[in-house]
Structure formats: C-alpha cells, structure tokens
Specification:
The complex is a heterodimer of chains A (307) and B (434). In chain A, strands 1-4 form a two-stranded antiparallel sheet. Chain A starts with a helix and ends in an 11-residue tail after the last helix. Chain A contains eleven helices and four strands, in the order ααααββββααααααα. Chain A is 71% helix and 5% strand. Chain A is mainly alpha-helical. In chain A, a hairpin with a 2-residue loop joins β2 and β3. Chain A has a single domain (3-296), classed as Orthogonal Bundle (ABC transporter involved in vitamin B12 uptake, BtuC). With 434 residues, chain B is of the alpha/beta class. Chain B folds into two domains: 16-167 and 338-397, Response regulator (Rossmann fold); 168-303 and 399-421, Rossmann fold (3-Layer(aba) Sandwich). Chain B is built from eleven helices and 15 strands. Chain B has helices at residues 16-32, 35-44, 61-80, 100-114, 125-137, 168-183, 195-210, 251-262, 308-317, 335-355, 363-371, and strands at 48-54, 89-95, 118-120, 142-143, 160-161, 186-192, 214-221, 241-244, 268-272, 293-296, 375-376, 387-390, 395-398, 400-406, 409-416. In chain B, β14 and β15 (409-416) form a beta hairpin. The radius of gyration of chain B is 22 Å and the shape is globular. The two termini of chain B are 39 Å apart. The chains are: A mainly alpha (307), B alpha/beta (434).
C-alpha cells in the first residue's frame, strides 16, 4: 500500500482505539480524581460491559434493538454493581489508598472468575446495529492533474465512525456534568477537600458511591461500544486496564482534558506505529512515554502538582 | 466442588480435606490388606487412568471444550465395550490454561499426584513443547493431539507420540498443489506467531515453491491479538491468494476485519478451518468468504458419501449434520480436529492390549507397542479415515480435504489421499534411549 492511504488507514484505526480508550480512562481518572482511589478493577468493569452486552442483546432478541437495549441497560447495571462494591467493600476499608488497591485487586479476580464460571472462556460476538463498509478515496497526482481513486483496503465501517462520534458526545456530556451542574460542583468540591466539603453538608460517602458507579459505567459503555468490533471475552480487561493507566498517567491523574489528549496521543501512536512497524513496538513506545512523563513531569501533561 | 477424577467432571482441584481423608483411608485400608489382596486388586479391577491435559481456559478454550466432549464420548464407548484389558478407563482432567508453564506442571501433577498411566490430549503447540520434556523426564507416555510438526521433527522425545492427528507439514504438502493449480501462485500468508504458525510458514513456503509458486509476504500475528486491521496493509497489491490460519478467541474478528479490509475486490482466499473452528459460518460479516476454500481434517458438514463411521462418531459425541452440538445448534464444534482425541484414545487402548499393559511398570512396553503400529484402517475407531503410523517419527498420516464455502456451508471439493502427504523422515525416535 502507498504511504498516504496507509497513513490515513492507520490514523482511522488509531482514532477508534483513542475513542474507546478515552471513555475508559475518563472513568478511571474521575474515580482517582475525586476519590483518590486507584481502581485496579476498572478493566473488569469494561469486560463486564462487553459480556453483559452479549447477554442483554441476546435477551432483547439481537439485532439493532438488542444493541440499543445493551447500550442503555448495561452501563446502568455495571454502575449499580460498582456502587454496591463501593458501599460493601471500599467504604469498609475507609478509602485508605493501600487497602483500596488490594481490595480492588480482589474485586478484579472475583469479577473475572465469576464471568469465567457463568459466561465461559469463549469469545462471543454482538452484531453491530449497522455496519456498512465505506471505501475512502485518495488523491493521485497523475499526468492530467489530481484525480481521485479508491485504494485497496482504505476503508472504515459506519459502525467505527459511530464509535468515534459516540465517544465524543459522551465525553462532552461528562464535561458538562462536571462543570455546569450542581452534582458536578459537589464532586469537584469533594475532590478539592473532602473534610471541608463534609463540613458544608455534602454527603461525601454518597458522592463517592456515585462517582465509583459513574466511572464503572463509563468503562462498561466503552465495553458495549467495542463489542461489535472485537468480541466479549473474560480476559479482555487486562490490556484495556494497562492502556487506561498509561493514558491517565500521561494525561495527569484526575484531569479530564489531559485524559482526552493522552488518549488521542496513545490511540493514534498505537494505530500508526502498529501499522507501520509492529504492535509490539507501539506498546513499547507507550510504556516509554509513561516512564518519560513520570521522570520529567510526574503530575502528567495537564495535572496540577500535588500541594 | 466436583470430583475431578470422575468422567464428565469439570477440572478442579479436589478439596484438600477430602483428599487428605481419602489418602488416610486408603493408607489404612492398604495396610490392613494382606499382600496378595493388594496385588490382585491392582492387577484386575483398578481403572486405567488417562490424564487429559485440557485447554479449559485461555486461548484454546473452544478447542478444549470439544476435545473434552470427544474424549468423554470415546471413554464411554470404550468402557461400554469392556474397557482396556478388562479394566475400566478413567479420564482425569486438568486445566492447563493453554499455557506452556502450567502445562508442564499439569504433566507433573498427572505423574506424581494423580498417578495416571498415560497423559493425553494436548493441542496447542507451545503447550506441547513446554510439557513434553517434563513428560520425558518423568517417563510418562504423552499422547498429543496437536497437529504441530514438533513431534515428527525430532524436537521432542521417545515418550511423546502423535498417533491420532496428522501434522502441519503433511497437511500443507497436501494443500499446496491445489492452491497453486486452482487459486494462484503469488501467496500472502497470515498465521499466528508461535510454533504452530511457524510450521505453516516454513512448510507451506517450501511446498508452494515446489509447485512453482511463491510466498510474497508473511504476516505473523500474536495469537492473543484482538484487533487485526492494522496488519492487513502489509498485504502486497500483487497478491493472488491469501493463505490464512489463525487461532485464539478473536478468530471471528480476524476474518470479519479481513472482509472489511478487502471489500468487494478480494483476492482468492484459502484458509485452514482453524481460522473459523467453533464459529458459525453464517455469522454476520462472513458473507465475503462465499466461494473461498478451506482445509478440513474432517468435514464439518455431512457429505453425500458419509461413512457409517462418521455417523457413529457424530451420534456418540452429539454432533448434528452441520457440525454443531445436537443440544444447541449455535454451539459449533471443532470438527476438523477433535476426532484426534477419539482416535488417540483408541490407539492407547490398542497399544495397551498389545503390550499386555498392567500398570506403570509397563509404560515402556506401551510406547514400544505403539511404535510397532502401522496400518489403522478406517473404522469406528478411526472415523476420519484410514491412517498410517510411522513408529520412527511417532507421527500418523491420513487423508486431507479441501472444502469450498457455498451458501454458508462447506462441501468437500478435493480429498487428498494419505499417500500424497508423506515426507522423508527427519528423526528415528526408536534409536533413542528411554
């Protein structure tokens, strides 16, 4: 394939990765920002989103209707589950940083193994509601000036475009929620200073439960969106968790714009490097970026230094 | 928790307390028995224990599920016919997670804890390569159902045998003439990046060159990969044939993304059915495969010339005319591979009978008895077809099929007889010490 179309295909693939990654990492970053909890089980909420999408879509009779049902119901189910986990586990350990890490590792294994026991070790597909292949043209400079042609393989599907669009919309809504609504104000107040917020009558524990549920719901939404492209599998949370951590560390823990920038950076570099060189090199570069950020800008690209 | 020693049980560790109780009970009972009673008991009635190394989890799970069902069905059939040397056959299942390190541990557990007579059933080549050396050290006969060339290449040891399924080298030798004559001579290969895929890469490249063709690009993809579009731009434009073989949980994604990549202007496509084992060929997104060709070890869909042996095999394992479970038509089997478990268990039975196998002290005799085997006629024991076993290389040979995908089902268009799948021996295991 020629260089131009090749690069465009890589960028499109990278944009899909970036979209899903941004949703997931936004959830992880939100939980860390407000609660100061490093949620190691975040990848499993993503996996649960994909697995439950398969279940819900099946119950709703499959097809476009099944997918829409999954898109609406699954983030709510997973969010409720996360709220329950917060109330029964994280609250009990007092949101202590070390103990929450161990507790969320426990949640990770429970979710993963329960899925293995109930859903099994197979990867299963969910049909996309629509999935037209859109061939993309490329400009060629021939003897008679520029002309359009359709290179072999340069294409995207309408569903992949939908994933990118959906991620943009959801992230915009999240930003509005955080900056323009009362509940967002309460969350930011809790993030800034937990004790003062409590002194002003903010029900901090309820805010924590809500934030944990919202974070997990975002991961689950990413899982529902990806499952028509990839398939639902009980081990899919591992890689996703690693990449989200990379994004959150580069972007700055707790910063939504930073997360978005880092997701674009990692998603596009992953797409382009893995198309031109190898997917292994893309992982190496992402990890190297994390190391560089940790050394030279430990608070991340957009994070504020710890006070 | 279930008892893992019972056929049909899911693989799990026995609860420790129960195990201790059993051990203590057995010890007391054994001490109370007079010597002769212990001796005759072991000789006559104790079951023959076959350790089944199952890919219950990990990237091989779909195969593991069907290897298990086939193995249990074969054990049931053997026991209904009187067992082995008058003793019942018992399958002891352990999950290896499709992981080489865990595989070696499972083999060790079979030998030292479960005290099985033989180990059996491993498919994924990296697990075989990780486990076989340990089986050799423990002097435990290890019957693999793997397709990898690592047995016949001489890489493994005298205790490792593959008498129930053909190897990749003979399969691609059988396929290369068809690809070159019918589909094209400029081939791009897409294969999983581990031992099994490397066998395809190396031996198909040789085989197609011998037919006047050429492999113009080789795309190695990690078997745990979940996203594939980014690999496809490396397919050169002059490609006439795509040769694909893929494994792992994401095979359906792989094939779908290949379809999306090519759109309406695809080259000819030849695949090993591995790329779509346990996948319904009518899944959305696979329409572009219409008219493409697949290798099949054993035809998934019932063919007009179906043998009575295939009918018997399907009935016993519980497979319908489309190669899916009779209980759930969406649960598609790994039909092109799983006959290997059935046939291997029958080879173990025949070997034990020929060796007068009475217990672990006769393990060497068992290996020698299997090495002495040659012809395996098509029968209920060998439903895939007649086979020829090469005792020197520990590898069996058999017929291969090319099938064409039409109207969402596969029909055999060419059957390559087993004589056309031979290659010169690369090893003589019988000269190696035990």
């Amino acid at each position: 394939m020629e260089f131009g179309p090749y690069l465009m295909l890589a960028a499109l693939e990278g944009a899909v990765t970036a979209a899903v990654l941004a949703l997931m990492a936004a959830g992880l970053s939100l939980v860390f920002g407000v609660m100061r909890v490093v949620n190691v089980a975040h990848g499993e909420f993503y996996m649960l989103g994909a697995v439950l999408a398969f279940v819900v879509a099946g119950m709703a009779g499959g097809g476009a209707l099944g997918f829409v049902a999954a898109l609406v119901a699954v983030p709510l189910i997973v969010g409720a589950l996360a709220v329950a986990a917060d109330v029964t586990v994280l609250k009990r350990v007092g949101y202590d940083p070390e103990r929450t890490i161990v507790a969320t590792i426990g949640i990770l294994y429970i979710l993963q193994q329960v899925t293995l026991m109930g859903y099994g070790p197979d990867a299963r597909p969910v049909a996309a509601p629509f999935n037209q292949r859109i061939a993309l043209p490329w400009v060629e400079w021939g003897a008679g000036g520029p002309s359009l042609y359709w290179p072999w393989g340069l294409s995207i599907t309408s569903y992949k475009l939908f994933v990118i669009g959906a991620a943009v919309v959801v992230l915009a809504l999240l930003w509005i929620l955080m900056t323009r609504t009362r509940i967002g104000l309460v969350m930011r107040a809790t993030q800034l200073d937990r004790e003062t917020a409590q002194a002003f009558g903010i029900p901090v524990e309820r805010v924590y439960a809500l934030v944990f549920g919202l974070g997990a719901g975002l991961a689950a939404l990413a899982g529902v969106l990806i499952v028509p492209i990839q398939q639902a599998h009980y081990l899919m949370g591992g890689d996703a968790l690693l990449l989200s951590f990379i994004v959150v560390i580069i972007g700055g823990l707790g910063s939504l714009p930073g997360t978005l920038i880092a997701a674009l950076l990692i998603g596009l570099s992953d797409g382009i490097l893995s198309v031109f060189f190898s997917p292994t090199l893309a992982k190496i570069v992402a990890t190297l970026l994390v190391a560089l950020v940790l050394v030279f800008r430990p608070q991340g690209l957009m994070g504020k230094p710890a006070r | 928790m279930s008892d893992p020693t019972k056929p049909g049980a899911t693989p799990a560790d026995p609860p420790r307390r129960a195990a201790l109780k059993t051990l203590a009970g057995a010890g007391t009972a054994a001490a109370a028995l007079p010597l002769w009673a212990r001796y005759t008991h072991a000789q006559s009635a104790a079951p023959i224990r076959v350790g089944f190394q199952m890919h219950a989890t990990g990237i091989g799970a779909a195969y593991g599920r069907w290897y298990d069902r086939t193995t249990q069905a074969a054990a049931r059939v053997i026991n209904a016919a009187g067992g082995i040397n008058g003793r019942p056959l018992e399958i002891v299942t352990e999950d290896d997670g499709t992981d080489p390190r865990r595989g070696a541990e499972v083999v060790e557990k079979f030998a030292n804890q479960h005290r099985v007579d033989v180990a059996f059933g491993t498919l994924f080549s990296h697990v075989v390569i990780g486990s076989a050396p340990r089986a050799g050290e423990l002097k435990l006969p290890y019957f693999v159902v793997s397709e990898g060339h690592h047995v016949a290449s001489g890489m493994l040891n005298r205790w490792t045998l593959q008498p129930g399924i053909t190897d990749v080298k003979s399969q691609v030798l059988a396929m290369a003439p068809f690809v070159a004559e019918t589909l094209g001579r400029k081939v791009t290969m897409i294969f999983p990046d581990y031992a099994f895929g490397h066998d395809h890469r190396d031996f198909f490249s040789e085989a197609i060159a011998a037919q006047g063709g050429e492999v113009i690009a080789k795309l190695a993809i990690p078997p745990t990969e979940t996203s594939f579009t980014r690999y496809f731009p490396r397919i050169p434009r002059e490609t006439e044939v795509i040769y694909h073989v893929m494994v792992g949980p994401a095979v359906l994604t792989f094939v779908k993304e290949m379809g999306e990549f090519f759109g309406p202007s695809r080259p000819a496509i030849f695949g090993f059915i591995d790329s779509l084992e346990a996948v319904d060929l009518r899944s959305p997104g696979l329409e572009f495969l219409e008219g493409s060709y697949f290798w099949e070890g054993m035809p998934r869909y019932i063919q007009p010339d179906q043998t009575g042996f295939d009918r018997h095999f399907r009935a016993e394992v519980g497979i319908d005319e489309n190669g899916a479970s009779v209980r759930d038509p969406r649960d598609v089997s790994t039909y092109a591979h799983m006959f290997g478990c059935w046939e291997t268990l029958h080879v173990i039975k025949r070997g034990m009978e020929a060796a007068g196998y009475a217990g672990p002290q006769d393990r060497q005799k068992l290996v020698e008895a299997v090495e002495a085997m040659t012809d395996m006629p098509e029968s209920n024991e060998h439903p895939q077809g007649a086979k020829l076993f090469n005792g020197r290389t520990h590898q069996v040979f058999g017929q291969q099929h090319v099938s064409r995908l039409e109207n969402g089902r596969l029909d055999v268009v060419r059957t390559v007889p087993l004589e056309e799948t031979f290659y010169p021996d690369e090893v003589d295991y019988t000269t190696r010490p035990f």
